[in-house]
Amino acid sequence: MPFQACRVHFDRRLDSDIPKKSWTGRAPLYAELKNRIRAVLYPDSFDEAHALLRDLAAERSRFKNTGRVDTLRGLERNIDLYSAHHLVPGLPADNNVTENVIKQLGKKLRLMEGFESLESAERYVRLLVGSYRFKRFTDSCPGNRKSPLEIAGIDLQGRDWLTFLLQR
Fold this sequence. Notes:
By secondary structure, the chain is an all-alpha fold. The protein contains 9 helices and no strands.
């Protein structure tokens, strides 16, 4: 599995790294830079991302001293990581689901004092993951009232998550 940087997090940082500054004459330049960076982050193909980035980098002098950090340089350095999903079939474009699962597991594990053995820790994590796979979403419009397994096309009619895990 290749490493993929999260383009959503990069996008969210744009507004703090390159503020609006609507009271200055450079506001349209700031907005243009953010729009062009977002176009590089969300293209239809790997080649399109590189072409858009090349065009943007060619105009680097226009955007000098725009924002608090050199956002363009960071994007150039990591473009392959933000575009990995174009090169690997089946790789989702964003890491949000994976990051959320890790966050949820982290919360649960922090609450615990410890485990008697590595085996009991592994069993507990398997239970958490199994529970998550069967738990129905309530905050995802297209996935509401469906579990991750149902979204993946698995029929769960009449199946209980604990019984399912014990059979494996």
